[in-house]
Specification:
A hairpin with a 3-residue loop joins strand 2 and strand 3. The protein has a single domain, classed as Alpha-Beta Plaits (2-Layer Sandwich). A four-stranded antiparallel sheet has the order 2-3-1-4. The chain contains two helices and four strands; from the N terminus they run βαββαβ. It is an alpha+beta fold.
Length: 91
């Protein structure tokens, strides 16, 4: 049995010069990700707070963290998560 992440909502802080378009494309390349929505919720002189909603069948959380870090973003909190238990396939 394994547990797969199907939906993840992250509150993140990113540099203003980092495009949400580029960030969303990068996050979509992470294993298991099928859809990404990004909403800017707050703008400061040098940063933006964004709400990132990620959907997929088996989202690679570590890959999400690395992709955000590569864009200069940090995870402030994981606000929602949806997981699904799957049975291991017999051989």
């Amino acid at each position: 049995m394994s547990v797969n992440i199907r939906r993840l909502v992250v509150d993140s802080l990113k540099p203003r010069e980092s495009s949400i378009l580029d960030l969303s494309r990068t996050l979509c390349k992470v294993a298991g990700v099928e859809e990404v929505d990004i909403n800017v919720t707050e703008v400061d002189a040098k940063t933006e707070t964004v709400k990132v909603i990620i959907r997929g069948t088996n989202i690679d959380y570590d890959g999400i963290c690395k992709s955000l870090e590569d864009h200069g973003a940090s995870i402030r909190s994981v606000d929602e998560i949806s997981v699904k238990k799957t049975k291991a396939k017999s051989r």
